Every structure is written in structure tokens, then in C-alpha cells.
Amino acid sequence: MEKIFQDGITASCPLPITEHSTVQLGHGSGGKMMNDLISRLFLWAFDNPVLNQMDDHAALDISGTKLAFSTDSFVVDPLFFPGGDIGDLAVNGTINDIAMSGAKPLFLSAGFILEEGFSLTDLKRIVVSMQRAAKEAGVVIVTGDTKVVDKGKGDKVFINTAGIGLIEHNFSISAQAIQPGDAVILSGTLADHGIAILSQREGLSFETTVKSDTAALHSLVSEMLSAGGTAVHALRDPTRGGLAATLNEFAASAGVGIRLDEQRIPVTPAVAGACEMLGIDPLHVANEGKLVAIVAREKAESVLKAMRQNPLGQHSVIIGDVITDSPGMVSMQTKLGAWRIVDMLVGEQLPRIC
Amino acid sequence: MKYLDEYRNPGIARRIVDEIHQVTTKPWVIMEICGGQTHSIIKNGIDQILPKKIELVHGPGCPVCVTPLEKIDRALEIAAQEDIIFTSFGDMLRVPGSQKDLFMVKSEGADVRIVYSPLDAVKIARENPDKKIIFFAVGFETTAPINAMAAFQAKREGLKNFSLLVSHVLVPPAMKALLSSPQNRVQGYLAAGHVCTIMGIEEYKPIAKEFDVPIVVTGFEPLDILEGILQVVKQLENGKAEVLNPYSRVARNEGNKAAQELLKKVFKISDRKWRGIGEIPMSGFELIDDYAEYDAEKIFGMGNIEVDEPQECISGLILQGIKKPNECAAFGKSCTPQSPLGATMVSSEGACSAYYSYAKR
Ligand code: SF4
Predict the structure, then answer these.
(1) Which pTM does this prediction carry?
(2) Which of A188, B135, B183, B255 could hold B121 in an S-S bridge, CB 3.0 to 4.6 Å?
(3) Alpha helices in chain B (DSSP H)
(4) Ligand 1 atom closest to Cα of B318?
(5) Which of 222-261 (B) contact A at CB < 8 A?
(6) Residue B132 half-sphere exposure, CB side, CA atoms within 13 Å?
(7) How far is residue B41 from each of residues A284, A348, B30, B142, measured CA to CA in Å?
(8) Which is it for strands B215-218 and B188-192: parallel, antiparallel or unpaired?
(9) How many Cβ pairs closer than 8 A exist between chain A and B?
(10) Is a pLDDT exceeding 50 seen at residue A8?
(11) Of A89, A306, A96, A307, residue with least CA distance to A211
(12) Is the pLDDT confidence value at B321 over 90?
């Protein structure tokens, strides 16, 4: 630990971060390594009741006004991909983090870290795409920052966005609200974003028609809340780490088990084919325009109906339920009728070699 | 890609499972050779829906798992040197050597790159004439032709800065070695379909005959695996020991002749050490003398690396089908995918990782 706290901080950590003494790629993958880093370093250092909720946003009460606040950084490679680019991703990503609290997103900030030599034409294309995404979503980018680093010290462009939104309802939408008996609803097909990105990676280019699903989900959320109200217990967009990571986090923080039915989980044939070829599980792949909702059983059908009216939720389905058994664990009935665990990934998802 | 769902169809699967139940009267031990099959079995829960009398044991068909520790240590040493670009398939990066893995060497500043084909490594060599590019050529017969192609291309272009660190293993000699072991429990094999796609099925006939075991060429999809099991059980119940190929939609009996020709131009068969199993005669490929200048072991030397495996790890017994992952005392405790003790916990094809990811623990 001493190595990590060099600046005279003599605090000792109850547990080693991991056996690594340096940051590994896996620490940013949305899987177990990242969770370890967050809980053993960031939560330990910044420890406070809001952060400790471990939601993708912070819910704040400022003199009676309830705000949702969130931030996200975007380092996607390639910058442009089928269905979107780093610009609309950066806008939609933060909007979604705010929207998952049920808040109405209002204002965003945008910080750019640019690498010396990066094409201004590309930068303009990205900024125009951010402008369009913000306009469509009805949010305003009100503040920003620009830094340029030496060539080779960054990778073309990194974008950070932060945002605030207004919480207009008076109940908490959070993993803590999840109850046994609740239904698990998914708003559409899985893994489109991750596969669209992978299909463009150097050396891996394979032919596919898969497009990123990047989209702002706050209108869908607001329609769900009108239909379900307090019955909507928890919402999250399954980005890095995929549906498996989101549901494992839900199960762990609520102390419940989650049971899925593989047959009901929608995956397009093109995505299923690409996953098969790459040896990866669609449950572990990132989405950028989908949400998973945990809803009280008696309202599940009406929420589902409302979701299906919205183009972003037209393929919504109930994929499973919340149970008391095996707390902290996600299991799935396979298409063959057997059962298996759905675990989080450890680190980077690695394509298989044969 | 349309075939996918067809080969997962639960209705057809039910019918095959019912038939397996009908024909099974005695206990049988069947080994699936390939790690991809192991994963499919555990992930889809195929072991849960078979008759109790049928025991599936998991074979050594995970190339990452059987790559000797000293070879990995050597790779780490080479990767850490100046002016090197070390390239590898992604799976290999997290496999622990005795101290580190390639990911750690990378985070310490080494230029380690994941490539999806060795031909990309050749391209990197072309674009970086002032660096030495090494490709970690690991795998079974399935990846051998493309690796051979990389060496072939590099030689044809006269590239001087490209080499292969070869750790290629061959499946049939290992199947034979397992059957010859006094501890052997295997009574029937699901052969690795993708290996047969390249090499064909002829090599299996003498094995089936000599050891009196049925061998059925089998793919990865749940329906392929169920069909393979059915055909093995039927043979066992009827006292037959033939080589059958219900996977002929992908693997033709004669294999891929062009790939076999290419292999002969670049590789020769040699003895190989398998991690956890030991030396198996004539069970691997190495570059022929004409390709000596593309052989990283000859360029960099193998050094004198002597290493010990972690004591607790029983992956050797698991790779031979003698033990199951959950019989290992370290499983899920001191050994997890996050801090693996053995390669069978790291590789996406490894049996320990399959049990940890999908099965009850
Ligand atoms: S669980 Fe870990 S220690 Fe045990 S055999 Fe598997 S890899 Fe080795």
C-alpha cells in the first residue's frame, strides 16, 4: 500500500487492493477488478453516505430541491463506429446515468483532452454530433474545459461529461428498493454496442450489420414512471460489464437472488453470431441504449406495456424475477432447461484463441 | 450465422436427451477433448440433463492450459526486452508465469499487443522495421495453419524482424497418452470437431482400434455435443469402438488438404511437454530447419528456466480427466479467475474457469 500513498498519507488499508502494484487494463473493465479498485480505494478514501450507495448517480438534496448528479469519461476506440461516435456516446451516457435515478436531465458539462496532432475535422464531427444529441435530448451543455497533451501522451481525444437533472418524484429508485417477487424487465436486445465497437477494432474487422444502440433513455424512463410510479424499484443501464454485471450488482446490494430465463433474453442473430465467433457471452457485452428495470410484480405488465409504446423500448421483455434464495447470486435457466450461474467478468473480456 | 439457433433448438435437444436416457443401461465415462466443448457443456448445463450413469470428464483441449510454465516465463522475459513488440492472442495475456503475466509486463512498459491473427503480427513487423516482432504461436491443429501462414509470408517477403515463439501441440498423441495411463478412466471420446476440420479423421482410427474406445467427432453447439454423446453411448452399449463423424457439415473426413500441405512446408512433428501432463512423444509442432531464422527460441535462446508449479494446483489431474475442478481444495478459495493458481482457471477454455463461471460453487 505504501507505494500507492506516497504523499505522506500513512493510512493503511484493511485489505490489499489486489496483488497488482500497478493499474491493469482489467481495472477499467466494469468487472470484479474494477469493483475491487472502487471499493478498496475510492470508497475507502472518499467514504460518505451518498457515494456509498454505489449508484451510477448521486441523489442530492439542496435546500429541498432534489438533484441527480453524475459524471462519465469516454475513451472509446475507434472514435467513429456504426450507429454513433464518441460524441453522442458522451452525451447519451451521462444523460442515462442521470435518467436511471428517474430525474429529468437538464445541464451537461463537457471536458476535452485532445492529443496534439488530432484532426480538427474529426473534432468538429464529434462536437456536431454532441450538439445534435444534446438538442434531441433537450439538455444544454453549459460549461466545458479543453486541454491538449503532447503527441503520444493521449489517444486522439478523451471526453468527460458531467450532468445534473431534477428529481421530481418523492421516492427512491435504487438497488436498495429491490424486493423478492419483483420482475426483471429488459428494454431490448443485448450487446449491440459492444459488438459494433469490436467489429471495428483493428485486426478484428469482421463483416457485420450490427450498429451501436447509443440513445438517451430519459423519455422512456419518464413514461415508465407514469405507468408504474413507486412500483419501479430500480433502474440501470447495463454498459460496461453488460447485463451480468448490472444484475450482480443489484443482487449484491439488495441481498437478493435473481433468476433469469435464457429463452426470453433477446439477442439479434447477427450479435449472437459475432459473440459465438469471438467466444464471448452477450450477457457480458456493453450496451449504450438499453435499461434494465426491477419492478413490483403487480405493476410489471403495465410498465412493460408503456415501455413497448416507446421506440426505444419496443422490444422490452420480462426476463426473470427476484427471489429470496441464494442472495447475491444471479442464476439462469438455460435453453436446455438446466441451470447455471451468471457471474461478472473478472477483467478484460478476451477473445478466445481457437 | 443463421445456423446458430438451429443447433441450439431446445425441442430437438429434448428428443436427443430422451434417446440418450433410453439407450443408457450402464455407467460410462466419456471425455470431451476440447475446452470449447467443456465450456458449452457447463454453460448450457448439459451435464445436468444427462442420465446419472454418464459421467463427462474434461480433456486437455485447452492450448493455453497446457503451455508449459517455463515457456510462459520465457515469453515474459522476451517481452520485457528493449525494441521488442510481443504479440499474442488475448487469452495468453492473463496466464500466470511463475511471477507475472503478460498484462503486468505490459503495464510495466513492455510493448505487448493482442492480435486476432498472426498475420496482423506480420503486418506490425512490416510497419516497424526497427523493432523485433515476436508472435506467441500457441494452439492445437486449429490455429497451426494460420501460424504457419505467418511464417511462410514473413519468409517470402524476406522479413528479418519477425519470429514465432512456438508452443504447438497435437491432439491425437495426447488422447493416446491418456488412454495408456494406468489411471485412465476414459471409455469414449468426443473428438474436437475443429481439429478434425483441419486434420480429418484418419488419425483416430488406429486409436479407436488399439484401445477399443469409440471416438465421435463433435462440434461446440449444445445439439452437436448431445448428438456426440448419443453416438458414443450407443457404441459403448453395443460393444462397438468406431470413429464416427456426425459433424461432417463442418469437418470433412479428409480434413483440409491445403492446410495440411502448408503445415508440412513449415512445421515438423516433435516431442512436446504439456503443462500438468508431462512430455508426450511426437505431440507437437516445431519449425523446420529452413525456418530456423523465424524461430524465437533459436534467436533468443530458451535460457535455463526451471520452475515449480504451485503445490495446491491439481490441474494436471484435471486435464487428464482424473479429477474435477470442484475436487481441488483451492477451487473458488485461494484460486479464482481473479487470482488464478493454474492455467485451467485463466483460459476461457479451461475447465476450472468453466466451473467457476457457470456451475454451482
Ligand atoms: S482450481 Fe485452481 S488450483 Fe485448483 S486445479 Fe484449478 S487452476 Fe489449479
Answers:
(1) 0.81
(2) B135
(3) 3-6, 10-23, 35-44, 46-49, 63-66, 69-79, 102-107, 118-127, 144-157, 171-180, 193-199, 204-211, 222-237, 257-266, 296-300, 315-319, 343-346, 351-358
(4) 5
(5) 222
(6) 17
(7) 19, 23, 13, 20
(8) parallel
(9) 123
(10) no
(11) A89
(12) no
Range in B47-51, B81-85, B87-91 the model is least confident about: B87-91
The pLDDT, as a whole number, for residue B205 is 97
| A144 beta partners | A110
Specify burial of residue B332 (Cβ count, 10 A radius: 0-12, 13-18, 19+).
middle
Asked if A273 lies within 8 A of B338 by C-beta distance, the reply is no
One-letter amino acid at B32 equals E
Q: Which of residues 198-257 of A touch B (CB under 8 A)?
A: 202-204
Q: Domain locations in chain A? A: 29-166, 175-341
Torsion-angle region of A117 (φ positive above 0: left; ψ -120 to 50: alpha; else: beta): left
Average pLDDT over residues B17-22: 96
Cβ of B64 below 6 Å from ligand 1: no
ipTM of the predicted structure? 0.74
AA letter at B60: P
How would residue A11 be classed by pLDDT, with cut points 50, 70 and 90? very low
pLDDT value of residue B176: 95
| Ligand 1 centroid, distance to A251 Cα (angstroms) | 27
Is B93 close to ligand 1, i.e. is its CB under 6 Å away?
A: no
The grid coordinates listed for B237 are 452399449
At the fourth CATH level, which superfamily is domain A29-166?
A: PurM-like, N-terminal domain (3.30.1330.10)
What kind of fold does domain A175-341 have according to CATH? Phosphoribosyl-aminoimidazole Synthetase; Chain A, domain 2 (3.90.650)
Q: Which domain holds residue B352?
A: 315-358
Q: How many domains does chain B have?
A: 3
Least Cα distance to A292 among A61, A96, A46 occurs for A96
| A-contacting residues in B 314-343 (Cβ below 8 Å) | 336-339
Q: Which of B312, B352, B356, B361 for mutating ligand 1's site (highest number of atoms within 8 Å of CB)?
A: B352
Does the pLDDT of residue A17 top 90, yes or no? no
| Rounded average pLDDT over A315-332 | 96
